[in-house]
Design a protein that fits this description.
557 residues, alpha/beta, nine-stranded mixed sheet, nine-stranded parallel sheet, 19 helices, 32% helix, globular, binds zinc ion
Length: 557
């Protein structure tokens, strides 16, 4: 090794994050990460390596010495693929610092999603304005709100609008006519045309309003583009029958259509069977997967249909006094105080205790499962900025700030292999999304040469969540460095305002949509048996539509 090279290496090793003057060296890389424990869930690489980054990509992973313009000493630290959160309802400037503190390099709202007609505008608002990568699916719920409630007051274009659109209930309870159904599907087709990452459906909130036919047609629509549907299942939260039956609806459709599907937050009763169903289908070549958030409690709006006394108390056997907590005040509701608050503020955020604490560790043991935080928008959000102090942020469920570090901590405390936890935080979302043709996910979630340099560096001995139900906006710790698209967005655990770092995660917009309106005639032409005895029938004639079997006309309406 030549001497100058050796001295430069020493310099890089001892002085972290010092940008070396260009004239001083002939650096091969823009940035190097030296001496870290590099972990790659796809190839199972787990060893001390040096990583060289050039033009936003991982250019080399090697045991040889390398030199860069900037160097990070990662001795004693894990160098992992950047964490990918496929279920984050808050893609806003005030959220970014907490996301980065928790190691997240990409956040996507795939469960509720954005209003189909305005999906492109959702992306435009974030261009050059986000330090981490961002993406969104097309919202089933909002297409219904537009058609069935006439909701038009789009301010956010995605999940936070639900706190206003959910004040009406047509979106949840109305069975659309065939014409309305076609309108709903047309709005969603427009969102897919504009490049949405498949469809998100909050079916669990619309359990009476949405027919089996409607869900099937949604999956068929996303399938026209080869994209996923993510469903908060019918009858979730429920028991170990309802929950599983809910997911079976989606999986049966996915099997019949051959389309990708995500079981959103299946960290509920029956999770072990849900996991087995997903593993079984993947074994048969279907691209279906599930996600969990590592907490015993959930969070939603007070007027969620499953919190009504007939469901929550009578059917599921919970008591409000023990399970339904106000996010802002920390007080538990009674049947009476819940009814009073519903009149004043129907969509007020609540925390819902629904699972035993011990189950959390079980979920982290499930191979192939991804982490989706289900982080909620903070309310009220007026005046919240990128640098609003963590203590001044309104309270929220701790999954918002702590989900990913929590998985790493629980894996450490419960002797779960670190590679399993690392796969959950990144690869398990990137791989299936990439497999359905989402190019930006084919090059993320992996520590390999040629991949995009989205990298999270953490201390395996100390990494931990700190957010609690009382204070849900406390940042995670033990994650000193986060790199997005080759740009350092956090060093020494201090997030940097690198707003040019984040890139859109989306499909290329297409010229034309793919949806063809549904009709009774179309169905009968496709599915009725043509006359076998052509002598008696008239070839090509229309069958008698008044005798349509159950499952066509009746279920569409
Ligand atoms: Zn949900």
């Amino acid at each position: 090794m030549n001497k100058a090279f050796y001295m430069l290496r020493q310099f890089a090793l001892t002085i972290c994050f010092v940008a070396l003057p260009l004239s001083a060296i002939a650096a091969d890389y823009d940035l190097v990460i030296i001496n870290g424990r590099v972990m790659d869930p796809e190839t199972n690489l787990d060893g001390i390596r040096n990583v060289g980054i050039k033009e936003g990509r991982i250019a080399v992973i090697t045991e040889d010495q390398i030199v860069g313009m900037e160097a990070i000493d990662a001795t004693g630290l894990v160098v992992a693929p950047g964490f990918i959160d496929g279920h984050q309802h808050c893609v806003e400037p005030y959220a970014y610092r907490l996301m980065v503190r928790d190691g997240r390099t990409a956040i996507m709202d795939l469960e509720i999603g954005a209003f189909g007609d305005k999906l492109d505008e959702w992306y435009k608002r974030r261009e050059g304005n986000s330090p981490i990568n961002y993406g969104v699916a097309v919202a089933h719920e909002f297409a219904r709100a537009a058609v069935l409630d006439g909701f038009k007051d789009w301010k956010y274009l995605y999940t936070p609008d639900a706190f206003y659109s959910r004040i009406s209930d047509g979106w949840a309870k109305t069975r659309p006519s065939l014409e309305q159904g076609n309108e709903i599907l047309k709005i969603m087709d427009e969102g897919l045309r504009q490049g949405g990452i498949g469809i998100g459906s909050t079916l669990g909130y619309m359990r009476e309003g949405v027919s089996a036919r409607e869900i099937y047609e949604l999956q068929k629509l996303s399938g026209l583009y080869g994209r996923q549907i993510s469903i908060h299942f019918r009858r979730t939260p429920g028991n170990d029958v309802d929950e599983v039956n809910g997911i079976q609806e989606m999986l049966a459709n996915a099997a019949a259509l051959g389309t990708p599907a995500i079981a959103a937050h299946f960290n509920n009763p029956g999770y072990n069977l849900v996991h087995e169903l997903l593993v079984g289908m993947r074994g048969r070549g279907y691209n279906v997967w599930g996600e969990i958030y590592p907490y015993a409690a959930g969070s939603t709006a007070l007027n969620a249909v499953f919190l009504e006394p007939e469901v929550w108390v009578k059917t599921l056997g919970y008591k409000y006094e023990e399970t339904l907590q106000d996010v802002a005040t920390g007080e538990f509701y009674t049947e009476k105080t819940r009814a009073e608050m519903l009149k004043k503020e129907p969509t007020r955020p609540v925390i819902v205790y629904k699972m035993p604490q011990e189950a959390i560790v079980d979920w982290i043991r499930l191979p192939g499962v991804a982490i989706g935080s289900d982080g909620m928008p903070l309310l009220p959000d007026e005046g919240l900025e990128w640098d609003t102090p963590y203590d001044d942020l309104p309270n929220t469920h701790p999954r918002f700030a702590g989900s990913f570090a929590r998985v790493l901590r629980l894996a450490r405390e419960n002797n779960i292999p670190l590679m399993q936890a690392v796969a959950m935080t990144s690869y398990n979302y990137a791989r299936p999304l990439g497999d359905m043709g989402l190019k930006s996910m084919q090059v993320r979630g992996r520590m390999q040469k040629g991949m995009v340099a989205d990298i999270t560096i953490f201390d395996p001995e100390t990494v931990t969540d700190n957010a609690t139900y009382e204070k849900g906006t406390l940042p995670s710790t033990g994650i000193p460095v986060v790199i997005v698209n080759g740009i350092v967005v956090m060093k020494d655990s201090a997030p940097l305002k690198a707003f040019n770092a984040g890139q859109p995660i989306r499909f290329e917009p297409r010229k034309e949509g793919r949806f063809k309106p549904l009709s009774i005639e179309g169905w009968t032409q496709q599915f009725y048996t043509p006359p076998v005895d052509f002598g008696g029938g008239v070839p090509g004639s229309q069958p008698n539509v008044t005798e349509a079997p159950p499952g066509s006309q009746a279920d569409i309406h």
